[in-house]
Design brief:
This protein is α/β, with parallel strands linked by helices. It has helices at about 15-30, 50-55, 65-75, 150-160, 175-190, 240-245; strands at about 1-5, 35-40, 80-90, 90-100, 105-110, 130-135, 140, 165-170, 195-200, 200-205, 205-210, 215, 220-225, 230-235, 245-250, 255.
């Protein structure tokens, strides 16, 4: 399976312009032979909204007008996409990512871990379990940005059968070490492919660092952006490698299996309520 990630600038509150640029890039990556293209977090809307009231007009349902237009191009090109957007919540918005195929919306994800930054200051926390979607070519899990700092999310999706985890992200200045280390680690510890696609440009005083990256099942970097310019990453992934968790480094002498070797009966502390107050959410 050939996948692509589009590192691009996003225009705040310009949903129509962003959607047009996304469609242009889908045509380009499909012509290059990719069957899945990943775009950044909030690629349809921009991220640094000043209030919930400012963000609300740019949220929509899933499926909805934008996903319908993306399905049209996916059907035309026999292609699939993952795009970040704002989804309507009952009394607010979710920071969401949607997986669209030629047949329609295959799945969506609502960001669970919310930093005090951008629209996440006002967004409704995700309320669904981590899920894996059966694409014809690979089993795909969805996360968004800050979720990559919580290894439990990737581990759960690995247990659920993910071959590839896709992470639309908006890493700003200060997130360099996450971009350079966390993505490879999530791949290595789970034996999966990981595709983290960041935006570039500036928005209301925040600079976005690029550093998009696709990593392989051993934690190796397959493709990475070279800077903060617009760029498209391509990689070939083999789901069969992600499904074989046994690693025979020295036959009969050094063998590991990071799922079978787990000791979940000793991990209960992770699931205990912590009682800590997230920044500014009081």
């Amino acid at each position: 399976m050939k996948i692509a990630g589009v590192q691009m600038d996003i225009s705040l509150m310009d949903k129509e312009g962003n959607l047009s640029r996304i469609i242009e890039k889908i045509k380009e990556t499909a012509a290059a032979g990719a069957s899945l293209t990943v775009f950044p977090e909030c690629a349809l809307t921009g991220y640094c909204f000043a209030s919930l009231e400012e963000a609300l007009p740019y949220a929509e349902s899933i499926p909805g007008p934008s996903t319908d237009r993306l399905q049209e191009i996916c059907r035309e090109l026999n292609h699939s996409v993952v795009v970040g957007m704002l989804e309507q919540a009952e009394h607010g918005v979710y920071n969401a990512a949607v997986l669209i195929t030629p047949e329609g919306v295959l799945g969506s994800y609502r960001k669970i871990h919310l930093p005090y930054l951008g629209v996440d200051r006002f967004a409704t926390p995700g309320d669904r379990d981590f899920a894996v979607y059966s694409h014809p070519e690979a089993n795909i899990g969805l996360n968004i940005c800050y979720d990559s700092a919580f290894p439990e999310s990737s581990r759960i999706m690995t247990i659920e059968g993910a071959d590839l985890i896709v992470l639309p992200t908006n890493w700003p200045t200060g997130a360099n070490h996450v971009a350079e280390h966390a993505i490879n680690t999530r791949s290595m510890e789970n034996g999966i492919y990981y595709c983290a696609i960041n935006r570039i440009g500036a928005e209301r005083g925040f600079e976005f660092i690029g550093k998009s990256r696709i990593t392989g099942t051993a934690g190796e970097t397959i493709a990475t952006s070279t800077g903060t310019d617009p760029e498209i990453l391509y990689a070939i992934i083999d789901p069969a490698l992600a499904r074989n968790k046994r690693v025979d480094r020295v036959p009969d002498k050094h063998v590991i299996h990071r799922l079978a070797d787990r000791r979940p009966e000793l991990y209960g502390k992770i699931t205990e309520p912590h009682g800590l107050q997230p920044p500014k959410r009081d």
